[in-house]
């Protein structure tokens, strides 16, 4: 049946299921022509839109920390070649001819000056040098590692764990408390895990209180250290103490 003889519903179904499967030439036929019977049973073709995702975030992050290649907006630069020789006031386009863009970047080392219109000052252009892409990524990774370590120090450092049991012997307790003091004076955050012995006798409540008191004596003896929150758990069972230390700078001995 020709499409113009169909009802409203049938015409809509024709547009959705039949028309997309027909060749373009068939779609432009006059309405008076009949639809080929074989095309009525052709499956509907689904077209998927291809999307592109940013896969290498580290690669894109380089441009957030460094200025290189096309991002250098000065037409003239002070150029340092791979051998370390300096070439003042070289056109940037000429400098780019000295490198392979597949393996190297032209990296801006110093920004130079800007004029009152925020344009590059030709009298003091930026200084740029050639650097391999691999070396730049290594430099970027080191920079990120240093920043990460600095953030850890600022936030109290990496968390350490120290395990004790309530029925611990005197000598063993003394040794563990010494390690606790060392970590706290190093500015570490320490998670002290207290638990009953798996085998052997159970500690009395007095012994448990004594162990807890000795731990807090060590904390109190480390200037600037303290528990960051209330203990979790119960005395004699499983208990967790979170203690933040403060780095102690050792005084240098002066010779008289």
From TrEMBL:
<dbReference type="InterPro" id="IPR036787">
    <property type="entry name" value="T_IF-3_N_sf"/>
</dbReference>
<dbReference type="GO" id="GO:0032790">
    <property type="term" value="P:ribosome disassembly"/>
</dbReference>
<comment type="similarity">
    <text>Belongs to the IF-3 family.</text>
</comment>
<dbReference type="GO" id="GO:0043022">
    <property type="term" value="F:ribosome binding"/>
</dbReference>
<dbReference type="GO" id="GO:0070124">
    <property type="term" value="P:mitochondrial translational initiation"/>
</dbReference>
<protein>
    <recommendedName>
        <fullName>Translation initiation factor 3 N-terminal domain-containing protein</fullName>
    </recommendedName>
</protein>
<dbReference type="InterPro" id="IPR001288">
    <property type="entry name" value="Translation_initiation_fac_3"/>
</dbReference>
<dbReference type="InterPro" id="IPR036788">
    <property type="entry name" value="T_IF-3_C_sf"/>
</dbReference>
<dbReference type="GO" id="GO:0005739">
    <property type="term" value="C:mitochondrion"/>
</dbReference>
<dbReference type="GO" id="GO:0003743">
    <property type="term" value="F:translation initiation factor activity"/>
</dbReference>
<keyword id="KW-0648">Protein biosynthesis</keyword>
<keyword id="KW-0396">Initiation factor</keyword>
